[in-house]
Amino acid sequence: MTAQETADATEAAAPKVSQRALTIGLCAIVVAIAFETIAVATAMPIAARDLEGLDYYAWAFSAFMIGMLFATVICGRLSDRIGPAKPLLVGLMIFLAGLVIAGSARYMAQLVAGRLVQGLGSGAMNVAIYVCVAVAFSRRQRPKMFTYISTAWVLPSFVGPPVSAWLTQHLSWHWVFFAVIPLVIFGGAMAFPVCCA
After folding, report:
1. How confident is the model over 58-73, as a mean pLDDT?
2. pTM of the full structure
């Protein structure tokens, strides 16, 4: 079988799912992760001062990265074995739990713990998203999908800091976490049913 025949067979074998819904859902999840990663940097000085935890300021970022790296390794293997749907759902739930933990923090240790949980969730979702693309999109469609995902990562770098600053100034730094919850739920509602199809 030639390379072209193999590519055609792969494309023909791509599952017939609602790729539009999946694209919107996955991009919404990426925007939520990226916004949280970027926007927290704007709100963190005020949050750390409010919680009297400036000595642990750096841990709010380190914990997120540690959780993300750990979950990336674990969920990469799981997604290969059982598919992306369950790791995506588990990642969504963990990320939502991290948002609630951090957003309701009364002590700096709770905020750092929430950031660790967010990192675990975001690492799981990131891996599952790329596996979803590999499973649900043909070889010819994947570059376009990766372009959408890249755009979803870049967009929050422009809007994240001013939105975070506005939320922190007019509401509270807690809302930098809480405001992301609807976007995560929306993304999951769009993507998860398609991943399970």
Report:
1. 90
2. 0.83
Collect all residues with Cβ–Cβ distance below 8 Å to 114 and sequence separation of at least 6. Answer: 98, 99, 100, 101, 102, 103, 105, 177
List the one residue out of 94, 86, 188, 90 whose CA is nearest residue 135.
86
pLDDT tens readout for residues 37-50: 888 888 888 888 88
Residue 127, pLDDT above cutoff 50:
yes
Q: Quote the CA–CA distance of 117 and 104 in Å, as a whole number.
A: 14
Q: Where are the alpha helices (DSSP H) in 104-141?
A: 108-136
- CB-based contact 112:56 (threshold 8 Å): yes
Name every residue whose Cβ is closer than 8 Å to that of residue 36 and which is 6 or more positions away in sequence. Answer: 99, 118, 122, 177, 180
**Pair 91, 71: CB distance under 8 Å:** yes
Contact between 144 and 65 under an 8 Å Cβ cutoff? The reply is no
The H-or-E segment that residue 165 falls in is helix 142-170
Euclidean distance between CA atoms 160 and 182, whole angstroms: 16
Q: Which two tokens stand for residue 78?
A: 């799981």
Contacts of 92 (CB under 8 A, 6+ apart): 29, 121, 125, 184, 187, 188, 192
